[in-house]
Specification:
By secondary structure, this protein is of the alpha+beta class. 47% of the residues lie in helices and 15% in strands. It has nine helices and seven strands. Strands 1, 2, 3, 4, 5, 6 and 7 form a seven-stranded antiparallel β-sheet that branches. β3 and β4 form a beta hairpin. The protein is globular.
Length: 266
């Protein structure tokens, strides 16, 4: 398996794949097709997880586990690479995400402008694998990496991810961890909407106040610019992705009428 820890790793990985794909005409034509290798591997992993309650959807390469109260869903999604080369390189990566039906309902009824969300958290499986840091990819054309993937992914899900799934169904635990600045959900918007959903406005206000003290300083700069813009022009008509965390914090404070403490100095 290979760890992708930063933008340099991703860039090198993409370049290597493109270079390999450009020479695929020199490849062994008798090698098993990458799609078949990928799908067979996904099915093998799914077979290991069916026994603990996961349902596999082959056409989507996705596994689903529903909580006992049917309010939360855990998904594992497998993906590959369009630049695979038969017999040389067949990529496998896996991400997980957890959805909340209650968050979806609250978020739809109390959107940030037009924005709503049901995903509490989403990560690459590498976030839970010991021994490295970043995202993980496997080359299934390599026998050792194939064996590693079919061992490590089910093991990590059983020994770590199931526990995470259970913890994220406990709103009191989540609230306490956020209040202590030990944890947050996918992004500030999701975190705040979740806290407001469980009537923890004071925790949401404390979380945003702390968030403005984070690096880079541009978060606080953008927040102050946004608040000045809202004062002069009013809030935007709709939510636009990519506006930046500082802008999002300003929107959250304004739209949900929150009281947050703003640092004096940048």
């Amino acid at each position: 398996m290979k760890w992708l820890k930063n933008i340099e790793d991703f860039t090198e990985h993409i370049f290597s794949n493109k270079e390999r794909a450009a020479k695929r005409h020199l490849n062994n034509v008798n090698a098993e097709k990458p799609r078949e290798v990928f799908e067979q591997t996904c099915q093998l992993i799914a077979n290991e997880l069916n026994i603990i309650g996961f349902t596999y959807y082959p056409s989507q390469h996705k596994l689903k586990l529903e909580s006992k109260d049917k309010k939360h869903n855990l998904f594992i999604k497998f993906s590959s690479n369009r630049d695979n080369v038969a017999g040389q390189y067949v990529e496998l990566s896996a991400v997980f995400y957890i959805e909340s039906k209650d968050l979806k309902k609250y978020s739809k009824n109390h959107p940030l402008l037009n924005y709503w969300n049901e995903t509490m958290i989403g990560r690459d499986i590498g976030a839970l694998v010991k021994g490295g840091e970043g995202n993980i990819i496997w080359n299934l054309a390599d026998k050792k990496q194939f064996e590693n993937a079919t061992l490590i992914i089910p093991k990590t899900i059983k020994e770590s991810l199931i526990g995470v799934f259970g913890d994220l169904q406990d709103s009191e635990t989540i609230s306490k961890e956020i209040e202590m600045d030990n944890f947050e959900l996918s992004n500030p918007i999701t975190t705040v909407q979740y806290l407001l959903m469980i009537d923890k406005q004071n925790v949401a206000e404390k979380y945003l106040s702390t968030f403005l003290t984070r690096k880079p300083e541009k978060i606080l700069e953008d927040y102050k610019k946004a608040m000045e813009q809202f004062k002069n022009e009013g809030t935007p008509a709709e939510f636009i992705h990519g506006m930046g965390y500082g802008f999002e914090v300003a929107l959250l404070e304004t739209e949900y009428k929150l009281k947050i403490k703003v640092p004096n100095n940048i």
